[in-house]
Design brief:
Blueprint: E1 3-7, E2 10-13, E3 18-25, E4 33-39, E5 46-51, E6 58-60, E7 68-73, E8 78-83, E9 92-99, E10 113-114, E11 118-123
Parallel strand pairs: 2-11
Antiparallel strand pairs: 1-3, 3-8, 4-5, 4-9, 5-6, 7-8, 9-10, 9-11
């Protein structure tokens, strides 16, 4: 069983930056593909970024491309999301997730393990 705990959310002005972290425990997540998703009030949870297990190949939603960077530290079982040039529309609860496959995926339902989420609020 994998447990995931996010941290690093908060309030930031538009144009600012934040780094989210996700700590894995229970067993190593180095072989698991990981992802970041977000859910704004009244909206469906949506894909943000994903990274494959082992090789670290990445993919991003168009809305965050060139602004967000997903990375991982397999030795520490950590996942990160560096967010820059933040916009008001980035405001949401951000979730990290893990799937059993090493292949990265943007498909929400393919992820078996989820953290509790961390709030990111971007003010204008």
């Amino acid at each position: 069983q994998v447990q995931l705990v996010e941290s690093g959310g908060g309030l930031v002005q538009a144009g600012g930056s934040l780094r989210l972290s996700c700590a894995g425990s229970g067993r190593s997540i180095s072989r698991n593909a990981m992802g970041w998703f977000r859910q704004a009030p009244g909206k469906e949870r949506e894909f943000v970024a994903t990274i494959s297990g082992l090789s670290g190949m990445t993919s991003y939603a168009d809305s965050v491309l060139d602004r967000f960077t997903i990375s991982r530290d397999n030795g520490r079982d950590m996942l990160y999301l560096q967010m820059t040039s933040l916009k008001v529309e980035d405001t949401a609860v951000y979730y990290c997730a893990a799937r059993s496959s090493v292949a990265a995926s943007s498909y929400l339902r393919s992820y078996e393990y989820w953290g509790q989420g961390t709030q990111v609020t971007v003010s204008s």
